[in-house]
Amino acid sequence: MQNRIHIQEGDITAMEVDVIVNAANPSLLGGGGVDGAIHRAAGPALLAACKVVRQQQGECAPGHAVITEAGQLRAKAVIHTVGPIWRGGSDNEAQLLGDAYRNSLQLVSANGYRSVAFPAISTGIYGYPKAAAAQIAMDTVSDYLTRHPLPEQVYFVCYDEENARLYQRLLTQRFPV
Ligand code: AR6
User: Fold this and answer.
1) Quick one: what percent of the chain has pLDDT higher than 90?
2) How far is the CA of 24 from the centre of ligand 1 (A)?
3) How confident is the model at residue 124 (pLDDT cuts 50, 70, 90)?
4) b/e for 40-72, b at 16 or more Cβ within 10 A?
5) Which parts are annotated binding residues for substrate?
């Protein structure tokens, strides 16, 4: 398991993985942060695919996830998940953040993909405290990987230094060298 979880600093749109996860909003029609970066890099085909999903299924509730093609990205697919907006911690945020990771992983497995890259969902515009969110991300992914052969490789992509430090510390705690 130790060699199935990786931390990568930088821009998630440059990742060479089967699936990139997007921290979307319920509309699925794009936004700022990593959502904006993914849509810019993928081009208009991604927005068109999101519109089709929206027509079929409506909005994507917090904690849920949907999968689309990846447009011009190197990835084969994009999973759009909606994290919770931080409202102080007593509004089911932790459960919903775990659900966002779990439901994304289930879509990766169900589609037979081997590698996936996650951003630090909810820790930007949605305001989730970064340390608490990193702990949930690491716990949820580790727990999932102990029970499923796919994905083989999971990358946590950290755009800011604080997240990179937090994830590194958690990984070292979990797998001391
Ligand atoms: N690659 C990797 N991580 C990134 C990138 C990038 N190119 N750009 C930002 N991040 P956010 P949220 C990090 O705000 O908090 C959008 O408008 C960023 O540093 O993108 O889930 C959606 O449409 C932070 O650690 O997502 C929603 O309305 C993390 O990605 C709302 O923002 C998440 O920050 C979702 O808010």
Assistant:
1) 97
2) 8
3) very high
4) ebbeeebeebbeeebeeeeebebbbbbbbbbbe
5) 11-12, 25, 33-35, 122-126
43 vs 172: CA distance, rounded Å: 37
Domains and CATH numbers, the chain: 5-174 (3.40.220.10)
Q: Is the pLDDT of residue 131 over 90?
A: yes
Q: For ligand 1, which residues put their CB under 6 angstroms from it? A: 11-13, 23-25, 31-35, 37, 83, 119-126, 157, 159-160, 163
Q: Is 99 a catalytic residue?
A: no
Among 8, 38, 159, say which to mutate for ligand 1: greatest number of ligand atoms within 8 Å of CB: 159
Residue nearest to atom 28 of ligand 1 (CA): 25
ipTM of the modeled complex: 0.99
The band of 177, judged by pLDDT with boundaries at 50, 70 and 90, is confident
Rounded Cα distance between 131 and 41, Å, is 28
pTM passes above 0.95: yes
**Per DSSP, which regions of the chain are E strands?**
5-9, 19-23, 65-68, 77-81, 115-118, 153-158
Residue that has been written with the tokens 């929206």 in this structure:
54
